[in-house]
Specification:
single chain, 449 residues, 2 domains, two-stranded antiparallel sheet, 6 strands, lipid biosynthesis
């Protein structure tokens, strides 16, 4: 018995020693990995492309006589106007051109975010990280864009047999595709790098949340009418440009530590400019049915249409100003203000884009500082990557979609019909007879000539 106890004690001692040895080994490995990772993050800023430092050779030689401050000002100004011009061309191209552009921007932003993660953890030789990331992007797009197609083109899709199957089981197919990726990730796990692999799994899903979900909301905003896309995007552009201008010439008071170059003068100047710009742009755009009508599929025309009778939001109304503005109105010899109701909503949008919108940029600045990089990429000289220009746009898109859903959107016959066509034939008949009976009881059907 004593020998057995001795052996057990001996075994316990050996187990403890083994465990301690393994623990020491893990600690050494983790310390070595931390040191290696820190060195790699330091090198990351040197290896990843930085757009603010990249300039075309012709432009670089032409501006060689300027100081770095004014040189950056000119470069940013040139490419800002080029981007504004490209944006105007896309608007002229119509909703399809805008949707394709949103998809391209989404893919590029996702690539820039994933490239940082890949560069940080490439030293560990983790398997399948990039392939899994792109697979999840494709799966997410299939789900979200499928939802949009079903919402807005359900009538025509249901008339095609093989598409009817995809519509009926869209969410089940999407979830099945996600499960394939999930199983793929689990099978790719390597014992030594569990923590890092799960970190990258989270990295990919956060990137999908930031990029794919927001682009889906942008597409929904476009379908509500081009004005719900153009005005918010233009407000962010105006705020960004005017904050830079006011900060460049008058900025003295730092705004936030995450972005040392941001100043209170730029923040306030950009905010006031955006509110004024938003009201003027909203007034001008509310006059054109092409910009204010929702995009719907016309069953009779067999195509998308943007023709409608503008809603009350886009018809001139007279408003009596508050009492404290009455003396000012008397100076102009007027008692009431004539304006489009949409301008009141644009005021809310402009305030959000001026006060909350910049925090999307601050969030991106904090993210870049964590990895000691200046820009997400080098696609746009003087500006950085695509993500550097769209960090605020994604936050704005979410707000616009929430605002439309909460205060603007109402059910339309077109959308209700799309849901009815998804019902079984006997359910459609049941709905028809119930609706007919209700209309007859209220004498509405008898009023129709």
């Amino acid at each position: 018995m004593s020998e057995l106890r001795h052996r057990r004690g001996e075994g316990d001692g050996n187990d403890k020693a083994e465990t301690a040895g393994e623990s020491d080994h893990v600690d050494v490995d983790s310390e070595e990995e931390k040191v290696l990772e820190e060195k790699y993050v330091d090198e990351l800023a040197k290896n990843l492309p930085q757009g603010t430092d990249k300039t075309p050779e012709i432009l670089d030689s032409a501006l060689s006589g300027l100081s770095s401050r004014w040189r950056n000002w000119v470069i940013r100004g040139i490419f800002t106007w080029l981007m504004i011009g490209a944006f105007c061309l896309l608007i002229y191209g119509g909703p399809l051109a805008l949707m394709i552009t949103v998809l391209c921007v989404q893919v590029k932003c996702f690539e820039e975010i994933i490239n940082i993660g890949y560069a940080v953890y490439r030293v560990h030789g983790l398997p399948w990280f990039r392939s899994l990331s792109w697979y999840f992007l494709l799966t997410s797009n299939y789900f979200f864009y499928g939802e949009n197609l079903i919402d807005y083109f359900g009538v025509v899709i249901n008339r095609t047999d093989y598409l009817h199957f995809l519509v009926t089981y869209h969410r089940f197919i999407s979830f099945s595709l996600y499960c394939v990726g999930f199983v793929w990730f689990v099978l790719s796990l390597v014992k030594r790098y569990y923590m890092r692999q799960f970190s990258l799994f989270a990295w990919t899903h956060v990137a999908l949340l930031i990029v794919v979900t927001q682009s889906y909301l942008i597409i929904q905003n476009i379908f509500e009418g081009l004005i719900w896309f153009i005005v918010p995007v233009s407000m962010i552009i105006c705020n960004d440009v005017m904050a830079y201008v006011f900060g460049f010439f008058f900025g003295k008071t730092p705004l936030i530590k995450l972005s040392p170059k941001k100043t209170w003068e730029g923040f306030i100047g950009g905010g006031i400019s955006t509110v004024i710009f938003g009201l003027v742009l909203s007034y001008l755009m509310s006059q054109y049915p092409y910009l204010v009508c929702p995009i719907e599929y016309s069953d009779s025309l067999g195509r998308m249409t943007m023709e409608c009778e503008p809603s009350t939001l886009f018809r001139l109304h007279e408003y009596t100003p508050p009492q404290f503005l009455q003396p000012l109105m008397k100076i102009f010899g007027r008692e009431k203000i004539t304006m489009y109701p949409f301008m009141i909503h644009s005021l809310a949008l402009s305030i959000f884009s001026s006060v909350i919108g910049p925090f999307g940029g601050f969030f991106a600045s904090g993210f870049k500082r964590a990895f000691k990089i200046k820009d997400f990429g080098d696609v746009i000289p003087g500006h950085g990557g695509i993500m550097d220009r769209f960090d605020c746009q994604f936050l704005m898109a979410t707000f616009v979609n929430v605002y439309i859903t909460s205060f603007i959107r109402t059910a339309t016959p077109q959308k209700l019909l799309q849901q009815v066509y998804n019902l079984k034939p006997e359910q459609q008949l049941q709905l028809f007879y119930a609706l007919k009976e209700s209309l007859e009881n209220r004498n509405i059907l008898n009023m129709v000539p």
